[in-house]
Write a structure and sequence with these properties.
about 160 residues; Alpha-Beta Plaits; 2 domains; four-stranded antiparallel beta sheet; transcription regulation; Lrp/AsnC family transcriptional regulator; AsnC-type_HTH_dom; DNA-binding; Tscrpt_reg_AsnC/Lrp_C
Length: about 160
């Protein structure tokens, strides 16, 4: 990024976190700038890779995926040289919603969505635990999740 973020940039980001499809005229009104300024600032945030993509949030239950889980995966110490390839494997699984490379007792945490508990059991057993790199897994069901409020800055931060 070529410049520090100011209060207008932060306001644009905060507004887009709530609705990335907001029309530019409404975005400009919410952050109290002209439409041309809002458009220029937004383009700059994208060009500078501050905003990396615009996505659609999908109700996965509407797709028949009723069960979500967090799978904590620990690899064998001898598989440490395969971390990146294993991460790619996890990312390419159609059940994967998010893949986190973490520290602590696990190497990865994978957020998955599947049809039901039997499908989850088979997925963990057949797709994850059967891999030779995997030392152990620990699966937690997600009962409910809600998005956070987005990134907020303290007054005076740039």
């Amino acid at each position: 990024m070529n410049r520090p973020l100011d209060s207008i940039d932060r306001a644009i980001i905060a507004t887009l976190q709530g609705n990335a499809r907001i029309p530019i005229a409404e975005l400009a009104a919410r952050v109290n700038v002209s439409e041309s300024t809002a458009h220029r600032r937004l383009r700059s945030l994208v060009d500078d890779h501050v905003i990396t993509k615009f996505t659609a949030e999908v109700d996965i239950a509407a797709l028949g995926l009723q069960t979500e889980a967090l799978i904590h995966i620990r690899l064998h110490a001898s598989a440490r040289n395969a971390l990146r390839s294993f991460q790619t494997f996890l990312q390419e699984l159609p059940e994967s919603r998010h893949v986190y490379f973490v520290s602590g007792g696990s190497d990865f945490v994978v957020h998955v969505a599947v049809a039901d508990s039997a499908t989850l059991r088979d997925f963990v057993s057949d797709s994850i635990s059967a891999r030779p790199e995997v030392a152990s897994t620990n699966t937690s069901l997600v009962f409910e999740h809600r998005p956070g409020s987005g990134i907020e800055w303290k007054a005076g931060e740039s």
